[in-house]
């Protein structure tokens, strides 16, 4: 049953305007009725107990079709909830993969930069060794030449 607004045309035993609700029982699915303003379907409180059907009795085919639609709606709601949960898991997995991808990119970029640095340092050392050898050779040649002078 769904909650409704006060209906001024009919008053319950309390002498106040009744409220209109919609029944969602399997016997009367979708059928509107008036009841005491103090009744509450959630707590089971009946108020003064006054009750009046607004809609005529539900025809059998309407009852069957409406009940099937109500069941289908519940199934679809459940399916939607499951799909939303799966979607959330996929979103979480995506976030983890994006973070892992960023870490790998940082490592790769850092690695290339590190290798580049190593290469530069290696070249620097090779240059130093080369000039040391050149200097050594020049010294030896000069020493050799000095012997003959
Ligand atoms: Zn009442």
Automatic annotation (TrEMBL):
Pfam families: Zn_ribbon_GRF. Residues 73-107 form a coiled coil. The chain crosses the membrane at residues 125-146. Residues 12-57 form the GRF-type domain. Keywords: Coiled coil, Membrane, Metal-binding, Transmembrane, Transmembrane helix, Zinc, Zinc-finger. InterPro entries: Znf_GRF (IPR010666). It comes from the Eukaryota. This is GRF-type domain-containing protein. It comes from Spinacia oleracea (Spinach). The lineage of its organism: Eukaryota, Viridiplantae, Streptophyta, Embryophyta, Tracheophyta.
